[in-house]
Specification:
DNA-binding; HTH_LacI (chains A, B); elongated; Rossmann fold; LacI family transcriptional regulator (chains A, B); 434 Repressor (Amino-terminal Domain); 372 residues; LacI/GalR-like_sensor (chains A, B); 14 helices; transcription (chains A, B)
Chain lengths: 372, 372
DNA sequence: TTGAAAGCGCTAACAC
DNA sequence: GTGTTAGCGCTTTCAA
């Protein structure tokens, strides 16, 4: 698929003579010829970084207009001029929490004169890799990945390699909410206190007298889920409550999963073996709430409910959802800040691992319960 | 800022000798030297499109590993190999409706083997232009813009030019939910029946006996708002109801704007001059509902409420929000489909304008009212 | 099976 | 002020 052959094919397939539609687009050379000057002069006019006679400039600009000339970034980049970009990769653009982080990335990147490119992978690792590859090849300033993963040998090996290859390309890998890869891997990590948040909110439930708390979790292998579940267990332990495995469920981080799982539980037995529900994300909590609502169960009267993430939706639910606030936007901003500061020599490699705090936001979905 | 000078500066600023950190990254030439072959051979190994002796291949791959070599897309693109991408531009990644469209774009682009790049502009036209420029220069297959605009001469002139320059660069401009630019402009337009949806839902309110409907709109100059307001007026007209200008409000498309405006109205007078609220987006409706809730106003008992967009949130509100469904995801998919089909010669220019339908989704936020 | 060489489109020293 | 020229890093003929 060489340049030449490709262009010929395009021409052969062409339907019209409209320049640009099929024929090759105008180059700086074409403009030069039309304006009766050299390519260098055109380049100067375009870059506007060098004195050019007004009349010449006029002619060049006219030619540019007439030919509908568009510079080729690739050629320009090759010649040394960079358009700095920051890339952000998430699973799903529709997910409310990660887009909050995307927003933070975007703002900070912009504040520092970079363009921000976002890519959604639908959780497909191949796609993630393809995008990282593209960004690496385009020499993006930083590539920021967000979203829990399955933390195994394969993960570490794979991302360690990615970190190195990005580094070799003059870019930087940033992991948001993912486990660090090791001390010698050139990657920036921005985590948040996942376990601590889960601990705190479980404690909140326990302090309100709840002892049997249904846990609506994500996939068992998912690092985010593991950390949250760990916090839940630690809190139980601190209160001397024996954990009941039958109260732990694993599923997806979707509204629907929360809905279905809650419905199934509600249908199961007359005497409910739990007085509160800890949904691992607000989305799951929203689904659970709908199921509770449909089942005629009062919240927090009969059952208390808490979520995690503190997305905007939490305040729209009725009752308003008590949840754990995660500083997603700040994570995004921090990710960009750390990576760029490092590149600009304003930060040291040792400071490339940050853990942001989380905290409980008490709203209306938790009620007091006399334990026993 | 030439390549040479830049590199020297980078070296000067360097802290370590780690290759890649500051020094220039390895090129195909470096790999060739290390492997004791020519650059052409390395290229062949990498592209894997040509027979190469197994042993040579081994040596090359090893050298690639050792040097952490990463091809330079720019050079590659310049030499004729394209990574096809589709670009999507929206105002805010956090906005629920447009990200639905982004999802559609992403899926369809992916189905057709393209990578999808998303850019959020925070409503900044300059940023939008910068991104479009970048994508044009990178020769993206299509550049898709979504979000209402101020429809004036400047808009038309500006985007007509963009359409032409994208076309000249072999790309294609797609406008989602924005007014067409004219018959001779090379742009694809995917609209939805904005006015029709507003008409239908207003009719729904009117049919339920509501005559005084508070309208919580967006900016007056915004095309989306204009169309929705037009639908509202047409419905009133069809029912022989005199529109009351004091019931029309303009503001922003945010939760908070809906909240504040509703609160102000509620505070204003004891005798409320309206029995229903038409919020121009579900987001605004969510805010209005909170205000109503706080004011102790029963919905739909005392006041009915409808929104527009049918985002997921609509089903989470209590009462569940009656609203207008807009096929955002389909818009995204359609945008990609039309643009790529055209490029592939599987569609004609005449079919590059599509209007998708909208419809009312009846849930629980509208009550009957005895008119008078 | 491999290498040499030309060229993709642009930029920036260096001459004039 | 403007043109000439030498690359940037890669791919792909063409020749060996």
């Amino acid at each position: 698929m060489g340049a030449q052959r490709r262009k010929q094919e395009e021409n052969a397939a062409g339907q019209g003579t409209d320049p640009g539609e099929n024929g090759r687009s105008a180059t700086i050379r074409d403009v030069a010829v039309r304006a009766g000057v050299s390519a260098a002069t055109v380049s100067r006019v375009l870059a506007d970084n060098y004195p050019v006679a007004p009349k010449t400039r006029q002619r060049v600009l006219r030619a540019v207009q007439e030919l509908n000339f568009v510079v080729n970034t690739h050629a320009r980049a090759l010649a040394g001029v960079r358009t700095e970009t920051v890339a952000f990769v998430l699973h799903d653009v529709r997910g409310p929490s990660f887009t909050e982080a995307a927003y933070g990335v975007e703002r900070e990147a912009n504040r520092r004169g970079r363009l921000c490119l976002i890519c959604s992978t639908e959780g497909d690792q191949e796609r993630e890799l393809a995008f990282v590859k593209l960004m690496r090849e385009q020499r993006a300033s930083a590539v920021i990945l967000i979203g829990g993963v399955r933390d195994d040998e394969q993960y570490r090996a794979r991302y360690t390699e990615i970190a190195h290859s990005l580094h070799a390309a003059g870019s930087r890998l940033v992991l948001c909410g993912r486990p660090p890869l090791g001390p010698d891997v050139p990657a920036t990590v921005v985590e948040y206190d996942n376990e601590g948040g889960a601990y705190a909110i479980t404690t909140h439930l326990l302090a309100n007298g709840h002892r049997r708390i249904l846990y609506l979790g994500g996939a068992l292998t998912h690092t985010t889920s593991q950390a949250r579940l760990a916090g839940y267990h630690r809190a139980l332990d601190d209160f001397g409550v024996e954990p009941d495995p039958s109260l732990i469920e694993h599923g997806e981080f979707t509204r629907n999963s929360g809905y279905e799982r809650t419905r199934a539980r509600l249908a199961k037995s007359g005497a409910r073996p739990f007085t509160a529900i800890f949904a691992e994300t607000d989305m799951v909590a929203a689904g659970a709430l709908t199921a509770l609502d449909e089942g005629g169960v009062a919240v927090p009267g009969e059952i208390s409910l808490v979520g995690y993430d503190d997305i905007e939706l939490a305040g729209d639910l009725r009752p308003r959802l008590t949840t754990v606030h995660v500083p997603y936007e700040e994570m995004g901003r921090t990710a960009v800040r750390l990576a760029l500061d490092l590149k600009e020599g304003r930060s040291r490699a040792a400071d490339q691992h940050v853990v942001l705090g989380t905290h409980v936001v008490v709203r209306q979905s938790v009620g007091r319960r006399r334990p026993g």
